[in-house]
Amino acid sequence: MSAVPFTVSVDLNLGNRIAPFLVETGQDVTVRKGAVPTEILEPVEVSPAFSASKSQFLLKVPNGVRILVSDGATITYDGGKASDREIALFLLGSAWGALCYQRGLLPLHASAILHQGSVHAFTGPSGAGKSTLTAALAKCGRHFFTDDILIIDPEAPGTGTICYSGQKDLKLWKDALVLTQAKKKLAIRDVEGFEKFFAAPANLSTESRGTLASLTILKNDATRLDRRLSTIEKIDGAKSIHELRNSVYRPRFAHAIWGKQKLFMSLAQLIKNVEVHEFNRTKVTAHFEDSVSYMDAWIERWRMASANGNASED
Amino acid sequence: MGLQRKPDQKICWLASYPKSGNTWTRLLLAHLLRDHDDHTEIDPVGSISSNRPTFDHITGLSSSDLTDDEVDLLRPEISRMIASNADKIEFIKTHDSYYDCGNGEPIFPLDCSYGAIYLVRNPLDIAVSYAYHQGHQDFAKVVRRMNCPTHSIAGGSHTQIRQKVSSWSGHYRSWHDQSDIPVLTIRYEDMVENTAGCLLEMATFIGLSGEGLPQRIKTAVEQTRFHKLQENEQSTGFKEKPERAARFFRSGRTGEGVESLDIDLQRALLKKHQQLMRELGYA
After folding, report:
1. Cβ distance A146 to A112 under 8 Å?
2. So what's the pLDDT on residue B226?
């Protein structure tokens, strides 16, 4: 089985973030600079920044970058005055997610580590701490697998859920760099004072494919509700599907490109193979290391339980 | 004759400077609008205009990859989308002042706005409440912010997107100097003194009437007595409590500013906001 779900040829510098996907010839997807229309025909979903039909997706970023994704095979960009780095930021973000849907792949809004062949992914809304927790676990010795996007192949043969790394670099705010000691690279934007940076994680895995073992939804209402500072609880059935719908990368893209029924069926299939948990913890900085240790220990317990044929360890 | 509104003018902004009774109002409205008799486990109505997941969901962009000013450019359209998808009045809490989003358009567009319920509170009391809300008692720090015309909260790496709050009087003036969106102004002190009367004003503003209204108001007031909110928080917590704050429903009293702020801080607020404080009966 291939290490990546598709290959890409590009004419701009995308850095190392999707290095495993890049080829010179024989690519599945072509990324080229070119004319981008101001609108697409018969969009199903429209927002201030995107419009999408089943086969076309148009992204319009306020900084002037416009990107058209067509038929899962071509990405055309007009970067305006933006640098390659800024174009790449949005091309490998929202446009990358739309490309996955067009190719029949399910992108989850998740960061993940790889441990002895098993991928443990963390999901949650923006600001939930996915990247920071994953970077911190990598600092503890777990192998960093992906940041921000985890690509699921719903059609992959076999019993497990095959997943792919969507991004091999992290994006971290300045305070998270301090917490995780990830190696700071350039700022993600060319705007003075913008303090979010690309970063190289500790312990980067060269693997870009794995089997998804657990999916953990990050919550931080423990102290608000006067509960213990860190808890992990397994969730099943309707609740897990409900939570996973919020963990899909850009759900409105999925609705436009796949339709709600296909998305629901894919998530229902996903929870047959993958354990879903809620990790409720405080985000107060003073307790950060404790919450990382708690999750690190849980992964170890999961591994041992899995080896004994009983994966669930709440 | 009542004000004529267009079909998409569905958002009722619940606008206030922080710690001016906004969450209490949202709870009052939640109980008032309850369509059955079970009044347990009720969340406050509406979300907040600075909700980052809502922004990301609607735009399909990661707000944390955008500058705060770029985020502002998209906010009017987001409001329009929320209004066009609503089947009745949609309440949205906001601590933003009323300002230009960056392209000449107000951050709160008229064409999707039903109106605004504006909650105002004595700035001396806000200073005390705001400090405890942030988990400290550095009242001087809060007073400096309340006197700063460019004061903003969140944005950048924070969980919520940026809110341009402005100074205490700057916030009030921004909402009351604009004439596009109808504004109902309610003083926090009047809510404490006559909760039912203030809630009736709000109910009338949002078009509620009918024989059952007095009973609904009575129930809402009873369910949101401050001691009751404190008891509920004590037993089950409160989702909107900041992690650093000891509790959300802390005191709710009026007059704490005079008791807790030293005289120099009281003078600093009075000097900056004297005219408006007099207009509102706070000085």
Report:
1. yes
2. 84
Interface test mutation site (partner B, options A147, A224, A246, A252, max chain B beta carbons within 10 A): A224
- The interface pTM score, or ipTM, of the predicted complex is 0.93
Residues in chain B: 283
HSE-CB for A290 with a 13 A CA cutoff = 12
Q: What is the pLDDT of residue B32?
A: 94
Strand pairing class (B11-16; B90-94)? parallel
Residues 6+ apart with CB under 8 A from A244: A215, A267, A270, A271, A276
Q: Please report residues of B whose CB lies closer than 8 A to that of A195.
A: 156-157
Residue B1's pLDDT band, with cuts at 50, 70 and 90, is very low
Alpha carbons within 13 angstroms on the beta-carbon side of residue B67 total: 15
Q: Per this entry, what is the length of chain A?
A: 314
Q: Per the confidence metrics, is the pTM higher than 0.95? A: no
Is A275:A243 a contact under the CB 8 Å cutoff?
no
Rounded to whole angstroms, how far apart are CA atoms A125 and A131?
11
- Note the pLDDT tens digit of each residue in A90-135: 999 999 999 999 999 999 999 999 988 899 999 998 888 999 999 9
In chain A the domains, ranked by start, together with CATH numbers, are 8-102 (no CATH), 106-307 (3.40.50.300)
The terminus-to-terminus CA distance of chain A in angstroms comes to: 33
The DSSP symbol for A104 reads: T
Closest residue, chain B, to A251 (C-alpha): B57
- How far apart CA A98 and CA A100 sit, in angstroms, is 5
Closest CA to A154 of A247, A2, A266: A266
How confident is the model at residue B109, as a pLDDT?
Answer: 97
pLDDT above 70 for A18: yes
